[in-house]
Amino acid sequence: MPFLFSFLSVLSASAAVLASGASEHGSSIILVAPSALVGSLNETTLTIPCIARPWESGCSGFTYTPSDVDADVAQLCSAMSVMPGCTINDMCKNNTAIQSADYCKPFSVLGDLCKYDMPRMTGCRAYTSMCGPSNSTVTACTQVAPLANLPTTDIANQAVRSICSSMSMDGCEKCTFKSATAYASGCDLLSVYSQLCLAMPDMTECSSFNKFCSSNPSLPICSGTSTEGSAPAMLMYFHMKAAYVLFNSWVPRSPGDYTWTFIVLVLMGIALEGIIAFRPLVERYCNGSRKPAPLLSKPKKGASNNSNNTQTQSTLPDWLVVTLASMAVWFIRLVETSISYLLMLAAMSFNVVVFVGVVVGLATGHVAFLRFKHANRSSNVDGVEMNDESNTLCC
Q1: Do 10 and 125 touch, CB atoms closer than 8 A?
Q2: What is the pLDDT of residues 5-36, one digit of tens each?
Q3: Residue 381 forms beta bridges with which residues?
Q4: Least buried of 126, 225, 237, 294, by fewest C-beta within 10 Å?
Q5: Which of 34-48, 259-273, 358-372 shows the highest mean pLDDT?
Q6: What is the distance between the terminal CA atoms of the chain, rounded to a whole angstrom?
Q7: To 10 degrees, what angle do helices 255-283 and 318-347 make?
Q8: What is the pTM of this model?
Q9: Residues contacting 204, CB < 8 A, separation 6+
Q10: Residue 46: is its pLDDT beyond 60?
Q11: How deeply is 147 buried, as exposed, middle or buried, from its count of CB atoms within 10 A (0-12, 13-18, 19+)?
């Protein structure tokens, strides 16, 4: 009879938690493999008074032994590693900086797996029996509570499938869906969900993730630092967060990254202003009627070498001089335009450091080559005044 009573208590508690979890998260009941339900849990654990009848007096200080907690978590993650609770467990094991956090306590991780996600699995039977009843007096169930609003496996799975079926994003290649109803395989589901939603947080599929991170803002997985190479957010306003700068591999995150990014952008701006200043010097020779370039000329016969009015004639045919000059201008203009648009695209990252690097480089270059620009504008060759066109970044 005691065994039967314990069994019925566990069964009723499991049903209650399952129903409340499904109701709260708006998801249907999740079916798991029979092997995960049968398992190898020691049945004697369920006969412990404060596990079988947690509402009894004297159970407030009851502690589920750490070895049993670890065994339950290991059994659950071995049976179904895609569960978000397993991601939290791995994150806590691999990140020494957060191991002292409350959400990294083994009993809290067990709650992540069992309270709303998979309460019917074998590894959750003791937790469900102990913390499932609303009149449970075991204080550990509330003091070492699971993470608030952690997406269930079902929610994360549906969100990732929906996002990756509608668009191709970095991270989608990590997960494989064998059918329209199957769980993802070959990937860390919560980490992929995080990567997708950090990149485009306004997607409707990310509402559960955003709610979770609003409740737990300090979690590494909510800031993109839990996994290497996580995608930065695409923010359309000025910010100081990680952002793509022109290339997928150029994502400054640390002070060192920002330093060399700033220097590179400043140098690009200076180079652009230098090209703008010197391009008119080459453009003068695109018109055959204008004075040829000194490097392509030699003194005219019969002219005095000491004369201030030395006349020169080209050693190359005029058409060839014009062609070479035109090719040089074409290439210079190509480089100039490329740098201009690269700087524009970099500034569109909306990262403050990147934007400041662009404008500082352009301003510095403008001042550095101001004398050359002034000379180009005021110069007069063969009676034709050279006025350099306005060169500004465009969009």
Answers
A1: yes
A2: 444 444 444 444 444 444 334 443 344 444 44
A3: 384
A4: 237
A5: 259-273
A6: 80
A7: 150
A8: 0.57
A9: none
A10: yes
A11: buried
| pLDDT confidence of residue 228 | 47
Count Cα atoms within 13 angstroms, Cβ side, for 245.
22
Contact partners, residue 19, CB within 8 Å, separation at least 6: none
Within 10 A of 395 (CB to CB), how many other CB atoms are there?
7
Question: Using H for helix, E for strand and C for coil, what is the string for 242-306?
Answer: CCCECECCCCCCCHHHHHHHHHHHHHHHHHHHHHHHHHHHHHHHHCCCCCCCHHHEEECCCCCCC
What distance in Å separates the CA atoms of residue 56 and residue 44, rounded to the nearest whole number?
A: 18
Of 179, 134, 187, the closest CA to residue 156 belongs to 187
Confidence of residue 151 (pLDDT cuts 50, 70, 90): very high
Please write down the long-range contacts of 376-384, taking CB distance under 8 Å and 24 or more positions apart: 376/277, 376/280, 376/281, 381/284, 381/290, 381/291, 382/289, 382/290, 382/291, 384/290
Cα gap 355→364, rounded to integer Å: 14
Position 239 scores a pLDDT of 80
Between 370-378 and 352-368, two packed helices, what is the crossing angle to 10 degrees? 50
Kindly give, in sequence order, each residue whose CB lies less than 8 Å from that of residue 107, ignoring residues fewer than 6 positions away.
Answer: 64, 69, 140, 144
Cα 20-136-142 angle, rounded to 5 deg = 80
| Residues across the chain | 395
- The tokens describing 191, both together, are 């980490």
